Structures are given as C-alpha cells and as structure tokens.
From TrEMBL:
The gene is serC. This is Phosphoserine aminotransferase. It is found in: Cytoplasm. Its EC number is 2.6.1.52. SUPFAM superfamilies: PLP-dependent transferases (SSF53383). Coiled coil: none annotated. Pyridoxal 5'-phosphate binds at A75, S76, W101, T149, D168, Q191, N233, T234. It catalyses: O-phospho-L-serine + 2-oxoglutarate = 3-phosphooxypyruvate + L-glutamate; 4-(phosphooxy)-L-threonine + 2-oxoglutarate = (R)-3-hydroxy-2-oxo-4-phosphooxybutanoate + L-glutamate. L-glutamate binds at R41. Gene3D superfamilies: Aspartate Aminotransferase, domain 1, Type I PLP-dependent aspartate aminotransferase-like (Major domain).
Length: 356
C-alpha cells in the first residue's frame, strides 16, 4: 500500500517508474541480467545514459552550447566544483544568500576566490527572495538557488544580468517552463524532482570552460567529463537509470508545460487551505512562495505534534518541517499526485473543525 509521501528528499517517484525499475532489478530488458549487473560501457547502459542526457536537454530546450552530465557527489559537490572550474584565485563571484544551501555554496567558493554576497534575506529568516541588489559587472558569475527547499521560497522571476548565471535547481528542476538558456550552468541533485539519490545532473555551457589557470583534478574537471560522454569513470548506473525513467514519465505528462499546470494546481489548493484555515499560517511571503515546498506553522504550536500524529493515521507522511525551522513542510514535487494534496487538505479541514 502506498502512502501520501510529502518527503523533501529523497522523495516520491512515479509508480510506473518504480514498477519498471523493480523489473529491471531482476532482468533488464530481457538480457538475463539485472540493471545492476550490466557493465556501464555496454550498449545497454550507454543507451540509458544517452537517453537520460538527451531527454534532459529536450525537456529544457537547451541550445547547442550546453552539455548535460550525470555526475557523482550530489549538489553539495557542485558547491566546490563550480568555483574550482570557473573562478580563478583573485577573481570575484557574486552570490545571493537565500538560506542554508546558498551559504554552503558561498563557503566553498571562498576556497577558490573572492565572494561578493550581493543580497541576503537572512534578516527575514529567509522567508523572501531579495529584490534589490546590484550585480557587479566584473564578477565572473552570479550564483542563485532557484528554490529554497527549507524555507519554501522560490525565484519566480530570474535576475537579469549579462553575467553567466549559475543556478542550484536541486528542488525545482524540471518543474516549470522557463527559458533555461538564460543560465550558463544548471545543477541539481536528482533525488528531489528527477530520480533517485546518487546522481547529480549538471547542464553546462561549453563556452564557459577553459578560462581558469589552476590545475583541476580529473574527476572534478567538467571538460574531461564532457569529453568522455559523462563516462569518465563508472557512473551511478542505477540512479541514472531511474532518472531516465523519470524523464520519460515527465515527457508523457506533456513535458514542462504539462507538469507546470499540475504543479500550479496542487500548490494553489494547498496554499488556499493554509490561507483560510484558522489553525494554520504560511511562513514565506506570498509573492515568493514555492510551488514545490509548502512551509507552514500553527498559531497554537502545542497542537503541532497532535496534528502530525493525526496525519500519520491518515497515511500522510513526511510533513515535519526542516529541523532548523520547525513547523511543517509539504513537498509537492512533480511526482506527488494531486489526490495526495486533496487528502492533505481534507485532513487540515477535519482537524481544525475538531479544534476551533
Ligand atoms: C537538497 C539540496 C541540496 C543538497 O543536495 P545533495 O545532493 O544532498 O548534496 C543542495 N541544494 C538544494 C537547493 C537542495 O534542496
């Protein structure tokens, strides 16, 4: 039996992806071998890698300057790999601080060059996206976090600049239509919105590379990964396979146009309940609310544990807020069904009728 899974990551995957993967675990495509037993340089796995890379490119409609890679190490490794490849010592990169994940990126970038934190929403407890900032023209790139998983804020309009934009899209990758070509480097741990933990998707402009003087270790050099077709060493084969299946599923939902409609409908239903139910209150400012992570609290915090217990009884799981902020967080990623949001909203209505 399946529950209503609002986990923030790793998180819910489409049923048909899990079903297909479970069969591939025993016998991949009639080969008599598990997907886990196939060499990564066989035609079987090469086809999986190629399809995953090309589906990601197709869904985001990336131009020819882009290469799509599936790497190891999670989004957190990108926090250091980005500046190692793009920022020479003595040079400056601009970062916008919208929470924990931005801060981790800032910390790593300081190991390689200067960091100019041009805006921060820290004083508001990261409950909004900064709107006023000057982007210094001499910076090498601008780094932003498109969706702030912990606080439930999201950039709905991207900053306008001639600088290359590097974006951490770990928690809203492929969730909406956008001009993805406005970016120069897009990265995302795939475990939130496009697959299983173990792989990180990086879409990078080739024209961005080869401009720093330092020697880059092979495994951290984007150029080498590109030249080797994202097969510099053994890739995380199962995680890439799950991503490929999830990307196929996404395409079958009408691509980003299709999923964006469903995501907007889910978020509207849940935020509407939060705004009208007297027991609950949203924590992010309305105009910056995330369509992926819905964060809210109760005005009577003493009821929070009771509500969590009630939800568990209703098969609603994963809604406890991040340990650093408390309250609740319902992650409503691409694969979370609309029906799960309906069940959640019913639970909120019922609980508040009993309590108010
Ligand atoms: C989860 C998350 C990360 C960390 O991802 P890992 O793959 O665990 O390293 C980074 N950035 C954002 C925005 C996230 O949501």
């Amino acid at each position: 039996m399946k529950v209503h899974n609002f986990n923030a990551g790793p998180s819910v995957l489409p049923n048909e992806v899990l079903y297909k993967a479970s069969k591939a675990l025993i016998d991949y495509d009639g080969t008599g071998m598990s997907i886990l037993e196939i060499g990564h340089r066989t035609e079987y796995f090469m086809a999986v890698m190629d399809e995953a890379r090309s589906l990601a490119r197709e869904l985001m409609q990336l131009d020819d300057d882009f290469e799509v890679l599936f790497l190891h190490g999670g989004a957190s490794t990108q926090f250091m790999q980005v500046p190692m490849n793009l920022l020479d010592s003595g040079e400056t990169a601009a970062y916008i601080d919208t929470g924990v994940w931005s801060n981790k990126a800032i910390k790593e970038a300081k190991l390689f060059g200067y960091v100019d934190v041009i805006a921060s929403s820290k004083e508001g407890g990261y409950n909004y996206i900064p709107k006023q900032f000057n982007i210094p023209g001499q910076a090498k790139y601008l780094h932003i976090t498109s969706n702030n998983t912990i606080y439930g804020t999201q950039w709905h309009e991207m900053p306008k600049t001639d600088l290359p934009i590097v974006v951490d899209m770990s928690s809203d990758i492929l969730s909406r239509q956008m001009d993805y070509n406005q970016f120069s480097l897009i990265f995302a741990g795939v475990q939130k919105n496009m697959g299983a933990a173990g792989a990180t998707m990086v879409a990078i402009r080739k024209s961005l590379l080869g401009k720093v003087g330092r020697k880059i270790p092979t495994m951290l050099d984007y150029q080498q990964h590109i030249e080797n077709g994202s097969m510099l060493n053994t890739p995380p084969v199962f995680a890439v396979y799950i991503s490929m299946l999830t990307l196929r599923w996404l395409k079958s939902q009408g691509g980003l146009a299709g999923i964006e409609k469903i995501n907007a409908k889910k978020a509207a239903l849940l935020y509407d309940e939060i705004d009208h139910n007297p027991l609950f209150r949203g924590t992010a400012v309305k105009e910056d609310r995330s369509l992926m992570n819905v964060c809210f609290v109760m005005d009577k915090p003493e009821l929070e544990e009771e509500f969590l217990k009630f939800c568990k009884k209703e098969d609603i799981v994963g809604i406890r807020g991040h340990r650093t902020v408390g309250g609740f967080r319902a992650s409503i990623y691409n694969a979370l069904p609309y029906e799960s949001v309906e069940v959640m909203v019913e639970a909120m209505k019922y609980f508040s009728l009993k309590k108010v």
